[in-house]
Design brief:
The complex is a heterotrimer of chains A (68), B (228) and C (252).
Chain A (H helix, E strand, L loop, with lengths): L2 H7 L4 H46 L9
Chain B lengths: L2 H21 L1 H22 L3 H24 L4 H5 L2 H7 L4 H30 L7 H25 L7 H27 L5 H30 L2
Helix pairs in contact in B: 1-6, 2-3, 2-6, 3-6, 3-7, 3-8, 6-7, 6-9, 7-8, 7-9, 8-9
Chain C lengths: L3 H10 L1 H33 L13 H28 L2 H33 L7 H22 L3 H32 L15 H33 L4 H11 L2
Classes of the chains: A mainly alpha (68), B mainly alpha (228), C mainly alpha (252).
Amino acid sequence: MSALQHFFAMGGYAAYVWPAYALFFAVLVADTVAPRLRRRRVLTELRARLARQSARQERKPPSTPASP
Amino acid sequence: MNRPALTSACAAMLRRDLTLAWRRRGDIAMPVLYALIVTTLFPFALGPEDTLLQRIAGGVVLVTVLLAMLLALDAMFSSDIEDGSLEQLVLAPQPLALMLGMKILAHWLATALPLILIAPLMAAMLHLPGAVIPVLLLALALATPLLSLLGAVLVALTAGTRRSGMLLALMLLPLCVPAVIFAAGAVAAAQQGLPWLAPVAWLAAALVLAVVLAPLACAAALRIALDA
Amino acid sequence: MSSWIPLWLHKLGSPPTFYRFAGTLQPWATALALLLGVVGLYGGLVLAPADYQQGDAYRIIFIHVPSAWMSMFIYGVMGVASFIALVWRIKLAEVVAMESAPIGAAFTFITLVTGSLWGKPMWGTWWTWDARLTSELVLLFLFLGVIGLYHAFEDRRQGARAAAFLAIIGIINVPIVHFSVNWWNTLHQGSTVNVFGPSKISGAMLWPLLTVTLATKFYYVASLCRRARTDLLDLESGKDWVRRIAEDEAGR
């Protein structure tokens, strides 16, 4: 048995050790990706809102008193 | 604010809530029916052997009462929030914690007391030995007000939200673990002929602590949840 | 010296300043977490010898124990931030408390699952109702309760304050649960698995463990920075500084 195979066999406990590590990294990666996706969504929504606002302002003539 | 005014305010609060509860008697009967139905289901699921039922009887009665209380907990403040009387209470000159304590007491009288009254019946359905039933009742009499008080804090926290049924269960579960452990521990110890005073004393200590602190926490939580 | 610290802290409390500060801190924390994580796990998985009793299965310790420590550490941070948020009503403290909760829940979940993956070959069971295990499970429910309550409110800041209150209640609750489960275990003598016997850990196993623990600490800092930045953008989306960021990133 090569050294690498020996390493992956984990002394017969591979079925317990590797899933544990896989879960550890899967959860942490999910935790890292989630805020990135949310950030993109928040910024996209904000840009859409800003675009709508500026479109509304262009439609209105600038002489009318601005209402908040 | 002099003392008689405060006492009469407390009495008025209690009378009002109990009157409201009495006018909706059907709602009071619901948790009782629920507890009876759940208790009936256990022998069907586990088989009618006396020894097995005896062994689980104490725990089943406790958990069933807890779940039945959880069912009614949601309604503790909901009608008062809908008609705005809770906001009046927050603005009232009387200390909010005391008034909420009265509301919790009224809620306990309306929901937990009927459950304690039918607990001997539930215990008998599961063949709990008659000698253990007083201990069970004592444990229930200490554990149910504890649950009402803890639950009231959480209900106050969810006062500003729309959907709270499942959330309430999720939040209450960690808090009620010690109460369930000690109440069931007392019953189990009594059933095995062991001294059962220690867990009951722990329950009583927790109850005393909760009686003092929970209304204050409930008032603070309500101020947070209604502060829009 | 004492004059500039409060000023610096006050400045950090303002969302745009914190956004920039977290932005510079986050890559460094991520890099340190990765570096220490790789070194620690190499030490743990490759260099450390197999345990004479448990064989190679003990190697789960290098993620299980750091995660368990982190779950409690993050609950502590959340409790302190919640207290600050309730007493001084600092928006940033609310953000830190509420964004810590999902990370804490993640670490608690990892602890529970890796623990049961370790328990199966060692004790022959996935789960035992031991005080530590039960407390960890209760901790998970507390984290989930905080997250659930936070999202149940329509007003974000109100939700944050309510959830902060729940977090503080929970901090009182955890020791009580631990004590009561301990008592309960002495009552029910059914399963007497000696789960946590006295054990000494050798240096070759200890240093990877501490390194990975440090790595998870830095990971938490990095993740908190990422989450807090995103949350601040969402909370302050009407403000000018967020608009500028949105417009700056539109071109990319």
